[in-house]
């Protein structure tokens, strides 16, 4: 069987065993993972669970548990250890429905949660492997070596593990604090063979530290949240081999990517659609759509989830609520969430454009734009910002972006805050944001 045709858990277990025996994990005790996987398999086999929930921040325990669950052939659920009581109660209610599942060899990856509603994207070994195949073809690489600082329970971390596993690559797992402190000594001299995956906040931190080794990577994948234009300009000035990406849990990570050579040439889009996927705009039936048309994105991919657990709802196209546009070269730019679109006085405003304009002033360290209700306008553009200095006022910021964006897009309401509530991946925590707005 081809490594990119992973179809059953027994084969996955055997492959992991073989790869670990060959030193798959960099700077880790690979044989300790094998021993732990065998113990877990023996333990789980005694009581024959109808599903397996993996909840750990320890990569050794995570991989061992994943191996054991795959070998048993039971549904696997990845759990965020940072969940609160609300999310755990929702998960408990969902797992009561496991026995009704038609597909047993599945892996359910959590998505959402910041709004209080947790969902699981239901994947199989086949959908995950399709993502790897598309990635490998797009980047024209046989072995995918990864430096992983992102959590394995999240699709961004899991797929780094999966890519290296299926392509005979190496996997160096570290946490971001260690990366900042110790660098990449474990792979020193071989950075040009590795992919590094970061979220924008991590990239900004490493640029602030002025680490020299960052330029040596084959590719630095950026995802998780839209990067600010100022951050991209800093990365380009440092000649970093950035690859901007677009993807989600539902598609088993990226389905669109920008190659570093295009980024360094000044391209700030998400790039081209990967071979295993199709991306359309909802009003256009063809992949080669009319340039500059703005509409809701529709996705078809071999890596697309089967549905949200427990509902298997195979659909021709998945609509993630994102608004985008293609240029004449087929590069996709994401303009924001359709549901986040602000309609003020009959005009459409996409928050990301306003946020980028504010960040480009250099007067703030973070910003977020949202629409808030207004009797006269319907909604008004509202900006939350973290000022770089006490002297930075709303009037100064508003003046700084005059002429950069249309007049109707300039925020009518400005809120100075100590911080913008974000999770570890840089995404907005909507409940905290709502509370913050309510307090102002």
From TrEMBL:
<dbReference type="GO" id="GO:0006631">
    <property type="term" value="P:fatty acid metabolic process"/>
</dbReference>
<keyword id="KW-0436">Ligase</keyword>
<feature type="domain" description="AMP-dependent synthetase/ligase">
    <location>
        <begin position="110"/>
        <end position="309"/>
    </location>
</feature>
<dbReference type="Pfam" id="PF00501">
    <property type="entry name" value="AMP-binding"/>
</dbReference>
<dbReference type="InterPro" id="IPR025110">
    <property type="entry name" value="AMP-bd_C"/>
</dbReference>
<dbReference type="Pfam" id="PF13193">
    <property type="entry name" value="AMP-binding_C"/>
</dbReference>
<dbReference type="InterPro" id="IPR000873">
    <property type="entry name" value="AMP-dep_synth/lig_dom"/>
</dbReference>
<protein>
    <submittedName>
        <fullName>Acyl-CoA synthetase (AMP-forming)/AMP-acid ligase II</fullName>
    </submittedName>
</protein>
<comment type="similarity">
    <text>Belongs to the ATP-dependent AMP-binding enzyme family.</text>
</comment>
<dbReference type="InterPro" id="IPR042099">
    <property type="entry name" value="ANL_N_sf"/>
</dbReference>
<feature type="domain" description="AMP-binding enzyme C-terminal">
    <location>
        <begin position="353"/>
        <end position="427"/>
    </location>
</feature>
<dbReference type="GO" id="GO:0031956">
    <property type="term" value="F:medium-chain fatty acid-CoA ligase activity"/>
</dbReference>
<dbReference type="InterPro" id="IPR045851">
    <property type="entry name" value="AMP-bd_C_sf"/>
</dbReference>
């Amino acid at each position: 069987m081809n490594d990119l045709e992973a179809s059953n858990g027994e084969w996955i277990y055997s492959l992991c065993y073989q790869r670990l025996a060959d030193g798959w994990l960099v700077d880790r005790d690979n044989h300790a993972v094998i021993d732990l996987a065998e113990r877990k398999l023996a333990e789980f086999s005694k009581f024959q669970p109808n599903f397996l929930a993996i909840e750990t921040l320890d990569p050794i325990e995570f991989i061992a548990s994943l191996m054991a669950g795959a070998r048993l052939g039971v549904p696997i659920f990845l759990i965020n250890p940072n969940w609160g009581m609300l999310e755990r109660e929702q998960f408990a209610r969902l797992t009561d429905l496991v026995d009704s599942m038609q597909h047993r060899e599945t892996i359910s990856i959590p998505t959402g949660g910041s709004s209080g509603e947790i969902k699981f994207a239901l994947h199989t070994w086949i959908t995950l492997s399709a993502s790897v195949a598309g990635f490998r073809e797009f980047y024209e690489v046989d072995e995918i070596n990864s430096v992983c600082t992102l959590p394995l329970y999240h699709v961004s971390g899991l797929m780094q593990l999966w890519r290296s596993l299926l392509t005979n690559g190496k996997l160096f797992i570290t946490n971001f604090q260690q990366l900042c402190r110790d660098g990449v000594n474990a792979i020193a001299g071989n950075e040009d063979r590795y992919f590094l995956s970061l979220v924008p906040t991590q990239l900004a931190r490493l640029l602030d530290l002025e680490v020299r080794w960052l330029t040596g990577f084959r590719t630095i994948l950026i995802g998780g949240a839209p990067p600010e234009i100022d951050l991209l300009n800093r990365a380009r000035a440092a000649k970093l081999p950035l690859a901007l990406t677009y993807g989600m849990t539902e598609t088993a990570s990226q389905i669109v990517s920008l190659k570093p050579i295009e980024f360094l040439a000044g391209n700030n889009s998400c790039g081209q659609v990967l071979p295993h996927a199709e991306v359309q705009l909802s009003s256009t039936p063809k992949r080669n759509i009319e340039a500059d048309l703005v509409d809701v994105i529709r996705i078809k991919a071999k890596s697309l989830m089967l549905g949200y657990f427990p509902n298997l709802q195979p659909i021709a196209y998945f609509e993630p609520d994102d608004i985008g546009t293609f240029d004449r070269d087929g590069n996709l730019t994401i303009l924001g969430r359709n549901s986040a679109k602000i309609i003020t006085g009959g005009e459409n405003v996409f928050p990301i454009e306003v946020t980028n304009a504010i960040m480009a002033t250099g007067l703030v360290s973070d910003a977020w734009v949202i629409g808030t209700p207004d009797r006269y306008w319907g909604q008004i553009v509202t900006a939350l910002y973290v000022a770089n200095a006490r002297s930075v006022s709303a009037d100064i910021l508003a003046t700084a972006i005059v002429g950069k964006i249309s007049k109707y897009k300039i925020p009518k309401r400005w809120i100075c805050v100590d911080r913008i509530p974000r999770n570890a991946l840089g995404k907005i925590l909507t409940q905290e944001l709502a509370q913050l707005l309510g307090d102002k």
